[in-house]
Amino acid sequence: MSTVLVCCAAFLIGAVPFALLVVRVLKGVDVRKVGSGNVGATNASRAFASKGGRLGAFLLIYLLDAGKGFVPAHFGPGFAGDGPLLTTAVLAGAAAVLGHIFTPFLGFRGGKGVATATGALLALDWLATVIALVVFFVVRLASGHVFFGSLALGLALAAAAIGLHPSTAFGERLPVTVLCCCLAGLLFWTHRSNLQKHFAAPRRGGA
Questions:
Q1: Which residues contact 139 (CB under 8 A, 6 or more apart)?
Q2: How far apart are CA 167 and CA 132, in angstroms?
Q3: How far apart are CA 38 and CA 114, in angstroms?
C-alpha cells in the first residue's frame, strides 16, 4: 500500500463522526441540534443531563476521536511501502485530523480537530503531547473556557515539539515540527467563531 492510499484511509478513519454516533445511540438525538451543533466531544456532552453523564460522554468521545488520529499515525507507516516512516506517519496523522474537520459523511463539516490532533501527536511525540495536555487543563481551569485550553494545547504542542528536541526539530524531526505548527494554526482557525463570540460580547454589553 502506498503512502497516498494510507493517507486516504487515514482521512476516512478521521471522518467517522463518533460524537454523532454516540449521542444518537445513547440519547436518540442529533448532536448537530444540541448546543453549538459542533460534532465534537465538548458539545456532544451537552446532550446528557447529569454531570456524570456529561463527563462520561466527553471522555468516551474524546478517546474515540483521539484514536482516529493515533491509529493512522502509529500504524500507517507499516502499511506504506514507500517514503520515510516519520514523514508517512505525519502525513497519515494530518490526514486523519483533516478527515475529522472536513468529514465527507456530514457534508464536509465536522469537529474542531482537538482530540484527533492529540491522538496523532501522541503517536509521534508522546512527551510533547502530555505536556500540551497539562497546559490544556491548566488554561481550561484558569480561564473557564474549553476553547482557550484547546488553543493553548496547540501552541504548547508546537513549543514542546521544538523545545524537547532542539537539535533535531529542524532536521530529521522537521515533519513533526511542521505538523505541530500547522495544527496550532488550524486550531485557531477552527475556533475562530469561539474567539469572535468571546471578544465581541463585551462590546455588545457596553453598547
A1: 148, 149, 151, 152, 153
A2: 20
A3: 12
Domain contains 120: no
Q: Judge if pTM exceeds 0.85.
A: yes
Mark whether 59 and 139 lie in a shared domain: no
Q: How many residues does the chain have?
A: 207
| 98 and 140 part of one domain | no
Q: How many domains does the chain have?
A: 2
- Among residues 162, 189, 178, which one has the least CA distance to residue 89? 178
CA quadruple 193, 197, 199, 203: dihedral positive or negative? positive
pLDDT (tens digit, 9 = 90+) per residue, 110-147?
A: 999 999 999 999 999 999 999 999 999 999 999 999 89
Do residue 86 and residue 139 come from a single domain? no
Buried b (16+ CB within 10 A) or exposed e, 45-82: bbbbeeeeebeebbebbbebbbbbbbbbbbebbebbee
The number of angstroms, rounded, from the C-alpha of 107 to the middle of its chain's C-alpha atoms is 19
What range defines the domain where residue 27 resides?
Answer: 1-112
